[in-house]
């Protein structure tokens, strides 16, 4: 809290010392806020369609990632080794690869490898701006309005450090609007550059700003701790919780009570008396979160993105989600009309434009984080922040079970099949399989064997069955899947039967088709039987020349010939 609200008279030296301490505390707050904003979250990047292009190994290597672009067709990610890769459409050279070629195969950005990227943002061109843990700023991509801050309007085909006025600053956060950029330094100074048609750079004019310029006026002498950009507007939070806005205000997104553009920062007076911790900007609306977990919204509301229950724009902040519990995080993105919030208990709400629908009230989702809202419901499906996907050293129940299969250290029962041992846990088998539940109940605890001999099934088949009980999956070749189908039939495991049939269908060939048909008939797998029969008819000439066909027992062979004849298989 700011010293200015303390009304008791104090000695000037004490006041000076206290204010110096306050600045240090606010610097610590800024650092912590930056860490918290990008803290580790268990997020599946595969929810963003573009990441389905990557292999499981590539996905596993990702530590941080961001999806951007007008159609969410570009992505950048940082690996655990601090290597930086990009892939996608490459509009306006926004991939920074040195050419204008699109790529579905990730390309390494050598210039950024090892730089330890801490904050990243992007524009609509798109252009990309990021800062590193060392406080350096790099930019590339669209530059028609000097949004790269290099003094030119030439497209940036590779990452280049933004130097003017920033070399002596340690930048901790960056933000981009449609075609303008901002950078926040560790000591609370704010710099802006690029497109300025509505005053979004905060320079006092509407002339484009070719290089970073410090935003002052009402921010002079104040320590900025948070920034956000709408399409053509800018917002800042200072260390005492005040909020300032400038730029385009046609929808009231600055929260000033009017819709006039502002060429310099102007305080949002309607938030007097509350302390804002976080600010987030959508395309033309703004969200603000207080230190007490209260949520305010203002600006454009065409899609219900304010969450007020109607579609009327709001020129001043209005409190929303008042009946909900404390809000701990808010999310919005300048390229979308979607809003999201997370509460103290972990509930995630979304509203605004959600997959083309206008959701006018905050809607409770089943998501675990606000990032998933943008992956699944925003248009375009971009990321609203640089996403950290570092996995905690934690295993889910399912992962733990899978890990402990065939583990001698924790097992309390062994099966011996073909002379080989498989280590399992009685409790898991009883929970997962009716066959074992009945078997174990027939034993008194003292009579329970430590080793159970299995002689009616092969080792690969029985091991696959036991592993299925731990993992819900089967990994067997089609030939062994026939044996597992037999086991599943014997043990009345209907889901396992279906999995086996699926494996067999995928592995059917001319050579094994008739053997598989015979197995399907033997194990009463009607769907598989019909599939194998059709395959044999479609490849009749080749199938009838195989050894399996002529080794088939008489009744089945006669039945096949009769059924195939009815289907017209022997017509000229």
Keywords, separated by commas or semicolons:
disordered N terminus, four-stranded antiparallel beta sheet, single chain, 572 residues, 14 helices, five-stranded antiparallel beta sheet, alpha+beta
Commentary on this structure:
Helices cover 25% and strands 28% of the residues. The protein has 572 residues and is an alpha+beta fold. Residues 1-41 have low confidence and may be disordered. The strands form 7 sheets. It has a 5-stranded antiparallel sheet with strand order 4-3-2-1-25. A 4-stranded antiparallel sheet has the order 5-6-7-8, with no helix packed on it. A 4-stranded antiparallel sheet has the order 9-10-11-12, with no helix packed on it. Residues 411-478 form the BTB domain. Keywords: Repeat. It comes from Mycteria americana (Wood stork).
Write a brief structural summary.
This protein is α+β, with helices and mostly antiparallel strands and 572 residues long.
